[in-house]
Specification:
The structure holds 2 protein chains of 2 kinds. Chain A is an alpha/beta fold. Chain A is built from 9 helices and 14 strands. In chain A, the strands form 3 sheets. Chain A has an 8-stranded parallel barrel with strand order 3-4-7-8-9-10-13-14, surrounded by 6 helices. A 4-stranded antiparallel beta sheet of chain A has the order 5-6-12-11, with no helix packed on it. In chain A, strands 1-2 form a two-stranded antiparallel ribbon. The chains are: A alpha/beta, B alpha/beta.
Amino acid sequence: MSKVDLSVKIGSLEIKNPVMLASGTVGYGNEISEFTDLNKLGGIVTKSLSLKPRKGNPPQRIVETPAGMLNAIGLANVGVEAFIKDKIPFLKQYNVPLICNIAASTVEEYVECVKILKDEEVIAAFEINVSCPNVKEGGLIFGNDVKSVARITELVRAETSKPIIMKLSPNVSNISDFAKVAQDGGADAVSAINTLVGTAFNIYTRKPKIHNITGGLSGPAIKPVALAKVLEISRNVDIPIIGIGGIMDWKDVVEFIIAGASAIQIGTLNFIDPSASGKIIKQLEDYCAKMGIDKLSDLTASYNLD
Amino acid sequence: MLLVQAPIEDTIELDHSIFLLKVHSPEITSIIKPGQFLNIRITDKPYPLLRRPFSACDVDGEHLMLMFNVMGEGTSILAHKPKGAPVDILGPLGNGFNLEDDYDTAVVVGGGMGAAPFPFLQRVLKGKKEILTFIGGRTHKDIITYGMENLQTATDNGSEGLKGNVIDLLNEKLDLLKSKKIKIFACGPAPMFKALKVFCNEHKFNCEVSTECAMACGFGLCQGCPIESAKDEGKYHLVCKDGPVFNINDVVI
């Protein structure tokens, strides 16, 4: 069997395979390293980092829903300074592209975070979270406004030459409008989708099941939505897409790539099977070999819509 | 922390939809401590999606026992898995009880299914410490007796033991408790913890509680299970990683 080339390019970022671990589902890498060889991954995306540490929302932060889960963690994170001091030394021992996810409540704060982090050699790229549905200020307010996304992209672009990935919200009418301004603003790629806003009620107390009232829906329930969004972006912009949303196995990965993704991120699945990503990489290789695909990147946007 | 497939040896219906699942897992039983928990994947289908956390109820040689009440889809599927079927276990998780403290008598306090972690604790302490057990429930149907030493009970409706709650029972035995060098190990619902905190602080009893919170991963990835620190204002601990066992005065309950 000939060796399959799984490597893909995300702008100037070259990764050995398309499988990344999504922000907010792997912390800063240390816990999941007990189950997954981080060196084998295409990349790992940190929990969203903000300028100052954030405590996050009170419990209950999580509830299971049919084929999915709602979360409203509230961007609990250590902040950029503690990340550099306490988390980067651990991550330095691995040879895996580290992508820093940045969240902020003002446009200036995004820029400030990137400014502080950009010279850290271990950071391969930035993913800019303009789509968190679970905080009052920032997050989705930016993600719902094309002009804000354009401005944040331009300002962050001006700050660093490292690859920039804009993480887009599905909670909009036309996600490709947002992908277009990200492209025009100089982003290397977009990642799609962040979670869908949802809620759930306790029918006996009539109270929402999570403290924040609404949360972000993830898991296999959102996969068809995510695929449609990736396809929409793929048909309207040229920069690479990182597909995210309900991936549970290698077949889901292939589906995302066919729909237009150059790479993918595994999210909720990490909670259920923290060893899944390693298996998926191997199975992708087997699929390509079986299908006679020499280069996995040839599969991107290979949909047949006729 | 391991991911294992442990075959079911037996499923025993204790009483009133409370089940004891016995699996064979030498990998887990050789390292697990009382108060730690396991996160169980019920099915590889998309529903129920998330793992379900269960206390290590008991460990006997290479056998691990999990106790649970059939509450919904997940526990129902688990209760009906056939003998020999593999159970997908992630664990052991969490910190467990600190059994090494300075005490002669372990006072075990459980409310309802909160009794689940204590057969294991009692098995480990047997012969080393005196054990007194106090279990409360709404009715006699909620009283778990499996693996309990020197058991005294209380029920809200008086159908078994003292009519009242488990804290009323502790108050009734106060002279006995005060005559010994005790440490309290407790697990149960939030109202029980609140009353227990008042009771322990009034009488200066050392007490550890095993807490619970909805969680997805069970080991710190999802950040879904915060519990407020009582000592460090504005800080959350994670139930899964920093707990589930805390000193009763270290957390807001």
